[in-house]
Amino acid sequence: MIEYINAGHLADITDLFNASGELDRYLEGGIAQATYNDRIWGVPVESIAVAAVWYNKELFIDFDLSVPTTIGELERVCDTLTANGIIPFALANSTMWTGSMYYMYLATRFGGLEPFRTAVTGEGSFEHPSFEFAGEKIQQWVNKSYFAPGFNGNDEDSGQSRQLLYAEMAAMHVMGNWFIGQMVSEDEDFMDRIGVFPFPAYENSDADPNIAIGTAGDNFYHVSSTSPSIEGAFNLIMRLLDPQAVDERIAAGAIPPLKGIEPDIPLAREALGIMQRAPEVQLWYDQFLPPEVAQVHLNTSQALFGLSMSPQDANRAMQEAIEAYRGR
Fold it and tell me: Are 260 and 39 in contact (CB under 8 A)?
């Protein structure tokens, strides 16, 4: 979106949105994702997508575990699980984006959104303590066996992570809320055992712990700056989430990015609550970054999990990649 804005391809719809009376219907995180330089350039339309921690409630009861609210508490939960032969996290990371969720949340819980934003723009750097913290914490967790043997070669797309959950070999899963639909189609009864909580806060940080990773709208709709009727195109987009459309989307299992939505599935309502409480939403790094830099992020993230690259080397590689992109 930002590249299209800077190239002059998108219409500024701030005034139209403000005049429409519709702005207050939308989740704040969604409007924040569609905002650049204090102006609104898009409308969040499709279902929300938010990464969260899904957990087996029965295993937590069996081992007298409480839902963690801090990273320290999460690590104590993981230590108890490993001591009892349960894998804490059902990560399958051959696709790389799965491990990236852990990395993004750890960096964001340490420093908030600003370190990533400034690293991308050049005002800051990927050699920032937030990213070093994320890499070091990941490698600590690998060394403490918080993930299944061979996890870096296991395939998310074929469901290898979920099979660990269904077999109750693993207790938690950091994943987007599309996991609900996967359970519905694969093992609907298992949903009764699953709960969800936001990725915990870091005790030694004042970063907002309600910041979410994901998309508050999944797809954003924009108006071309050369449209013969920018207002007409905007009004058409508004119709995509009129009351009838909202009802039909909810019936189809979607979670529109609006306030006051009540999905039928309890887990979906909880996931929506995580998004509704988010003051801002960090878009997935591999979608926010230019493609060539995004691939470096995915590669270095997987290398961190594989213990084949130090956090310092990973951050240096990211910094070199973004500098090369900006210097084109």
Answer: no
